[in-house]
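Quick start: read one record
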Amino acid sequence: MNINLNSLSLSSVATDAITAQVKAIQALTTRIDKNFDIIIGILINCKGRIAISGMGKSGLVGKKIAATLASTGTPSFFLHPAEALHGDLGMICPDDVVMLISNSGETDEVLRMLPALKYFGNTVIAMAGNSNSTLARSAEYCLDISVEREVCPLNLAPTTSTLVTMAMGDVLAITLMTVRGFEPKDFARFHPGGNLGRQLLTQVSDVMHRDIPAITAESNLRQAMLKMTEGRLGVAVVLEDKQLIGIITDGDLRRIFSQENAGLDDPVQDYISSSPFIIDSDAMLFEAEQIMRNRKVKCLVVVDKCEVVGLIDIFTS
């Protein structure tokens, strides 16, 4: 089938869809009430885990919600309702809270879990788009995820409803993080892989350069340039008995030699920066990166009990 795109206002379709989605999410603000506070209290005081279940698109959103909760300090897992009915209900422990997601509130596989959960004694929280549905009435508590209509032009494909459900899940996670006082170091414990985990878990001492390109205050600019080239960090550190006197960088050398009266035999002490940026060896890598980014420098001097022990640069971080 040939479609004449020129006959359609594609930008209008897209912007109207976005506007409708934004409006649906904004409507959630009216549902953050005392019932929401009670549910947060139940989740924060749960001695077990949060088991989340849903079919179809609700199940896909449920997997995302479970993953977000788990990665932000709330032990959670996703349980497929069809698999649950064939043995996986054994994954549920008495102290677990179960969150069942169904936009209609009448999803058969989800509803068939209710008798077993009641028998187990688990607290059941529903996320439903119909407050009069079987699921909403059967659960102890219900989060309203209703929408006026799907953004789908046929009002059939789960679009707005899944977006609102995911948004409600994110709101739960963010609120729980705030209540727990969840910090970057806590986040890092659950994200040890990749660059983020490395930044948040790694100390400066783990990655610093220990071979320090050191010179003395009596050195001249020629010696500073040779030591800088040898160290390959674009900096030479001026030390006296391991105590920091100052530094000189390749940028300093360029500025120095742009002056007509500067020479290679000039004493380095006439040009060094006596107040370089430093960081403790036990500081975290992300702190070093923040300093380098905010101060617009590419290298920090690493100290331990006032003694220079290394250098860290933007490339090793």
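The radius of gyration is 30 Å.
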